[in-house]
Automatic annotation (TrEMBL):
Main location: membrane
Cofactor names: Zn(2+)
Domain of life: Bacteria
Positions annotated to bind Zn(2+): H140, H144, E216
Annotated source species: Streptomyces phyllanthi
Protein name as catalogued: Protease HtpX homolog
This enzyme's EC code(s): 3.4.24.-
GO biological process: proteolysis
Family affiliation: Belongs to the peptidase M48B family.
Positions of transmembrane segments: 12-34, 40-57, 150-171, 187-208
Compartment list: Cell membrane
HAMAP family to which the protein is assigned, alphabetical: Pept_M48_protease_HtpX
Start and end residues of each Peptidase M48 domain: 77-291
Length: 307
């Protein structure tokens, strides 16, 4: 079933290209591991098992990692009310509603499809936002679900997760420490596995970051058009950007690993590397887009007011 969120051909194209390129990279990665490790059964079983687990349990994993819990209407009637209204306007299934007990003001959506999705906000966000600002943020998150880019970013990140795990295992295992007890061929194979994994991680990292930046702009655009109040979303973005800057650094370090899922990112990247490594567009880019949408909606509404 199609929702009333405006479709985004640019987002659909980018998701397709990213998944295709990562699929080719994934096939090459698995083939390289089979050749190097000489055990296709082990590689395929582990890779398939991890992919299935990430796809089917991504919402539970994300909620657990970000300390979120599903809440009922009796606990958070205002929050459920906003989600109910937006889902009715968008003509989409209502996702589970969750709250994470943390002061960091943020929100995220996760799940493999619109029928198995979760929208989560933090208590810090609920304390800080006005009702119309909260509506704008939730419309943004629901558009991620409707456009299915939540599922795509989850599956797309799988390859990087596996490659990253292999690299970390290599550095923290005792294999290097036992170098003297191993023959030279084993060490060469092991070094090759690390090299391939590191290269795959770097490529998938850049592809996912590029998709993530565009999908955030697409969600801002879709959410603003659904509510008809781009200024409310712009106000929420500006407020949260300033509030996050006041959060203690130790709390931001924990949250930084989940930037790709959050409504607004935690700071930490130097300006020189931001264009390639950032998960989100800059605040200025997001506000500029919302300003243009606001002008367009104002022009469209003018004839109705005078006529």
């Amino acid at each position: 079933m199609r929702s009333r969120f405006r479709s985004d051909r640019g987002l659909t194209t980018r998701m397709g290209v990213t998944v295709f390129l990562l699929g080719l990279l994934y096939v090459g990665f698995v083939a390289a591991l089979i050749v190097l490790l000489k055990s296709w059964v082990l590689v395929v079983v582990i890779a398939a098992g991890l992919l299935a687990a990430q796809y089917w349990f991504s919402d539970r994993i994300a909620l657990y990692a970000m300390r979120g819990r599903v809440v009922e209407r009796e606990e958070y009637p205002r929050l459920h009310g906003v989600v109910d209204r937006l889902c009715a306007v968008a003509d989409m299934p209502k996702p589970l509603v969750a709250v994470a007990d943390m002061d960091l003001p943020n929100a995220f959506a996760t799940g493999r499809n619109p029928d198995h999705a979760v929208v989560c906000v933090t208590t810090g966000l609920l304390r800080r936002l006005e009702p119309e600002e909260l509506e704008g943020v939730l419309a943004h998150e629901l558009s991620h679900v409707a456009h299915k880019d939540v599922a795509v970013i989850t599956v797309a990140s799988f390859l990087g997760v596996v490659a990253g795990l292999i690299v970390r295992f290599a550095f923290y295992s005792e294999l290097f420490g036992a170098r003297g007890r191993k023959d030279q061929n084993t060490l060469i194979v092991f070094a090759a596995v690390i090299g391939v994994s590191a290269a795959v991680y770097a490529i998938s990292f850049l592809l996912i970051r590029a998709l993530s930046r565009y999908r955030e702009l697409a969600a801002d655009r879709a959410g603003a058009l659904l509510t008809g109040r781009p200024s409310a979303l712009a106000s929420a973005l500006t407020k949260l950007d300033g509030e996050i800057a006041r959060i203690p650094t130790r709390d931001l370090r924990t949250a930084r690993a989940f930037n790709a899922f959050y409504f607004t990112p935690t700071p930490g990247l130097a300006p020189g590397v931001r264009p390639l490594f950032a998960t989100h567009p800059t605040l200025e880019q997001r506000l500029d887009q919302l300003g243009r949408i606001s002008a367009e909606l104002g022009e469209a509404a003018a004839p109705g007011k005078t006529g």
